[in-house]
Design brief:
By secondary structure, the protein is of the alpha/beta class. It folds into 2 domains: 6-99 and 292-329, NAD(P)-binding Rossmann-like Domain (Rossmann fold); 101-283, NAD(P)-binding Rossmann-like Domain (Rossmann fold, 3-Layer(aba) Sandwich), CATH 3.40.50. Helices cover 34% and strands 14% of the residues. The chain contains 12 helices and 12 strands. It has helices spanning 15-23, 36-43, 59-62, 83-88, 101-116, 119-127, 154-167, 180-186, 195-201, 221-225, 244-252, 292-310, and strands at 6-9, 27-30, 48-51, 70-73, 92-94, 146-150, 170-174, 190-192, 204-207, 232-235, 258-261, 281-283. A 7-stranded parallel β-sheet has the order 8-7-6-9-10-11-12, sandwiched between helices. The chain has a 5-stranded parallel β-sheet with strand order 2-1-3-4-5. Strand 3, helix 3 and strand 4 (70-73) form a beta-alpha-beta unit. Helix 1 runs parallel beside helix 12 (292-310). It is elongated. It starts with 5 loop residues before the first strand and ends in a 25-residue tail after the last helix.
């Protein structure tokens, strides 16, 4: 029964998701701001919480959550949720893993193509009456080149398949955590290599790993120094998986062909961030998954996860499945 349930929204979500909650008879409460003190007061009487990226749900905030049943992320990660603290309080935590996969793949391809074809430079030249830039033959082809994927999950593998099928690229992968059963199904079109080989052989390196202590600066000074002079680096995962200082250095020195970054370690970047003054990097504001279509999918799926718990069902993509063993959730059933 959902009619007496209250859902807290620390940030606005799309109207399509609100309609789902309204039709189910839920009350939703939009926080007037993202201040932890404000959200802490409102979380006290919330049964569900739909979470975007503008606030972190910390242990301190969760101390006020007297009746909270579920935290439902609109995105695929849990960077802004203290999952351990939520588990201790018996709160189910879910995410939208996979909902944004195709949108991020498209963004990766856009960055790859824009850099390979020198689109920003060509656009600027035409606008500044430098039409003869066409004779410099700046654009490069991707056909037959080598793509290196650091991480081979949904997004990395999807990008690899597309680049193999469309551009006949050789696909190199470094992913020490990939299960053997998955690796064995891909060996006909993927070559699994160590990270040094990947950075030294790839014409395009694309990062697709979550941020952990082991992946922090996975593309570090040593790895970047191995890249080919015309190679491109793409990062749509998390900013800190790339050593930004080292990357800025190789870009300034034109030691690689360019970079396409949707993520930075500090977002938004400071006014003196070294990347801002470089013309061989394309920067986008962590927007790979924020297409018009994808944000609606993420919000509506997050709302549906909340309703699943309210209606006695186990939602998809539970981050803390151990919480389901608690007596509180003994009534939940699979879809």
């Amino acid at each position: 029964m959902t009619s007496s349930k209250r859902v807290l929204l620390p940030q606005p979500i799309e109207s399509e998701a609100l309609s789902i909650l309204e039709k189910a008879g839920c009350e939703f409460v939009l926080s007037p701001d993202r201040d932890p003190e404000t959200v802490g007061r409102l979380i006290k009487k919330a049964d569900g919480l739909i979470l975007r990226t503008g606030i972190s749900i910390t242990r301190e905030l969760l101390a006020h959550a007297d009746q909270l049943e579920i935290i439902s992320r609109t995105g695929g990660g849990f960077d802004n949720v203290d999952v351990t603290a939520a588990t201790e309080k018996g709160i189910v935590v879910t995410s939208n893993i996979g909902v944004n996969t195709n949108s991020v793949i498209e963004h990766c391809l856009s960055l790859m193509l824009a850099l390979a074809k020198s689109l920003p430079a060509l656009d600027r030249a035409v606008r500044n009456d430098q039409y003869t830039i066409r004779y410099q033959n700046r654009p490069r082809d991707l056909q037959g080149k080598t793509l290196g994927l650091v991480g081979f999950g949904r997004i990395g593998s999807g990008l690899g398949r597309i680049c193999r099928q469309i551009f006949d690229m050789e696909i190199l992968v470094h992913d020490p955590y990939l299960p053997e059963r998955i690796e064995s199904t891909c060996r006909e079109w993927v070559k699994f290599v160590d990270i040094d080989t990947l950075f030294s052989k790839a014409d395009v390196v694309s990062m697709h790993v979550p941020l952990t202590e082991k992946t922090r600066h996975a593309a570090g000074r040593k790895e970047l120094a191995l890249m080919k002079p015309n190679a491109l680096l793409i990062n749509t995962s998390r900013g800190a998986v790339v050593d930004e200082s080292a990357l800025a250095d190789v870009l300034k020195q034109k030691r690689i062909g360019g970079a396409g970054l949707d993520v930075l370690e500090q977002e938004p970047p400071s006014a003196d961030h070294p990347m801002l003054g470089l013309d061989n990097v394309i920067l986008t504001p962590h927007t790979a998954a924020l297409t018009h279509d994808c944000v609606i999918r993420m919000a509506t799926t997050a709302a549906e996860c909340v309703l699943d718990v309210f209606n006695g069902k186990i939602p998809p993509n539970v981050a803390n499945p151990e919480v389901l063993k608690l007596g509180r959730w003994s009534h939940l059933v699979k879809h």
